[in-house]
Amino acid sequence: MSGLLSSPPKLKGVYLLMVETADSVSITLPGNGRTAIPPGTYLYVGSAMGGLVGRLRRHLRGERKRHWHIDHLLDAGKVVGVVPLPMNDGGEGECAVAEYLMGEVGRERAVAGFGCSDCGCYSHLWRVEGDFLHTKNKPS
């Protein structure tokens, strides 16, 4: 019992990464073949059901094996914003956030097939302008 209290459980959830790239990224996406992602600022939604802290540390460190689509984008860019969203929903929150972002940012700014090869979403990556994470939440 004391071990349970001394080491907190892994915090699961969904996260948003804002990534800036100076160079274009070429990646193979399911159903779309080779896709060129132009330089710019992108907003990505991912899930970390094994633990938010570990997943975010992995994304923030420079050297990593390419496992997920986001790894290719991170190799060419840098993380300029992070929003952890703790939740214990078995990973369904990732798609709910993606659906919300599709409505807010728009399908025309989405990179079709990015980050969603294991679900039915159109995308988990959008090209955004400026500091979307802050400007979107400013009071009017």
Task: Break the fold down into its secondary structure elements and pairings.
Blueprint: H1 2-6, E1 13-21, E2 25-29, E3 33-37, E4 40-48, H2 52-60, H3 69-76, E5 77-86, H4 92-105, E6 125-128, H5 132-135
Antiparallel strand pairs: 1-4, 1-5, 2-3, 4-6
Task: Please describe what this structure looks like.
- By secondary structure, this protein is α+β, with helices and mostly antiparallel strands.
- It has one domain (2-129).
- The protein is built from five helices and six strands; from the N terminus they run αββββααβαβα.
- It has helices at residues 2-6, 52-60, 69-76, 92-105, 132-135; strands at 13-21, 25-29, 33-37, 40-48, 77-86, 125-128.
- A four-stranded antiparallel β-sheet has the order 5-1-4-6. Strands 2-3 form a two-stranded antiparallel ribbon.
- Mean pLDDT is 83; it is low at 1-7.
Indicate the low-confidence ranges by residue numbers. Answer: 1-7
Apparent shape: globular
User: Major sheet: size, sense and barrel closure?
Assistant: 4 strands, antiparallel
Structural class label:
alpha+beta
The total of helices stands at 5
Order of helices and strands: HEEEEHHEHEH
Distance between the ends: 49 Å
For the record, the count of structural domains works out to 1
Q: Rounded to an integer, what's the Rg over CA atoms?
A: 16 Å
What is the count of β-strands?
A: 6
User: How large is the share of residues in beta strands?
Assistant: 25-35%
Lateral strand order in the biggest sheet:
5-1-4-6
Helix content: 25-40%
Q: Give the mean pLDDT.
A: 83
